[in-house]
Design a protein that fits this description.
14 helices, rod-shaped, mainly alpha, 467 residues
Length: 467
Amino acid sequence: MVTVISAQKIKPFDRPPTFLKSLLTKLSGILLAMALYGLVIYLPWEPAQRYFLGHPVAIAATFLFCIAAMTLLTKWLAVQKQHRFCASISDEFLSPRADGSSAIGTDVAQLCRNWQGSLADLPGYARHSRLVERLGELLDRQIRRGNARHLADDLREVSGRDADDAHDSLQLVRIIVWAIPMLGFLGTVIGITQTLGGLDFSDGTAAVDRLKSGLYVAFDTTALGLVLSVIAIFLQFPVEQSEQRLLGHIDRRCGELLAAHLPDSHSDTATQAIAALCDGVLAAVQTSLSTQAELWRNTIDGAHQHWQSIVATTGSELTAAISTAVERSLTPALANHATELTRAQTRGVETLDQHWLQWKDAADENAKRMLSQQQSMLQQTELLAHCNAQTTQLEILQQSLHQNLQALQAVNVNVDHSLRAAAGAEGMADAIRTLARAMDVLRHQLPYPVRSRDAIPSDSLHSRRVA
């Protein structure tokens, strides 16, 4: 009875329930998120407030990330604690006690009970280590069977179960890693929908500014979700690697201890038993690692395909929504613009008609003025021609007068000569006759006075010139 009670001391149900630990972890993540938002609110850093407080979806993604981060931190601390426990417990403390009542090599059940009693006497931190718990569970299975024939199968089964439990313990983290970018895309769709619904293109510059600010807020949620998801993935990887190393260390030590102290009825020698046990443990570890790698690969591929489908669907919906909103918003503005253009065109045509009439009137007036000026120039030309003719006639008269003056001078000379030569009556008579001939010559030589060109016939003028 004492042995059974001592064996129960190393059972895992001595620890707090898993549900309570998970609840405490989630509460710690919520408190971490609240502390983070307290820093964001009270510290005047614009990028942090823009990305973490820009949209309610960003706040939800941040809370989920903090829960995942706290879960990973708790897991990592627990794994490191188990590493320290395993390193601090030597194989001598885990070996069965050597007393006279033990029938080592003949009674496997009794040997396992004594071994459990020695494990129950270990310190408290050692009893709650996963190495001692694994060893106690394997010993309990051998006690129920009464032999160690299926020890290798038990090692593989327990190793695979612990690997599956380790994988399932981070299932919430995987869900959060997948959900955070989905929340980012959801925030983008909601932000763009609200932005396009409130657009007003009556003021083009203000509408573009509102569109840009709305798109900034919408795409910030996607950026935050992707960044938090990548950070969570990189935090998850070392935690899983550390736990895999811990499980591999536990599998190796449990296999070595059980193979060294428990007989195997199906083995001819102890060396073959150890070799078979080690091969089983190695196969179990390899199977666990391959299973973990395959599950991780499938999870990543599924998340990647889902992200691509979401991105494609979101892009098409976003394009259709933007096209519809822009068409709805621009149609009234284009109609008003067309109306204004028609009015402006009508006003321009009227203005051009008025300018054309004014230019036509001015051109008519200029033509009339030019015609009158041309007629005046024609009259002046005629006057100039008439003046030229008068000038020619005046020159002819001047030449005739000059000739008459020369003739008169000749007559005067003859008269003087006659007067000087006359000395008596005969001389006087000759002078009178000479004067009479001179007067007759002058009467024939001097022309009639001319008043106008038209008053003297051309024939008489020509006959006088000839005379």
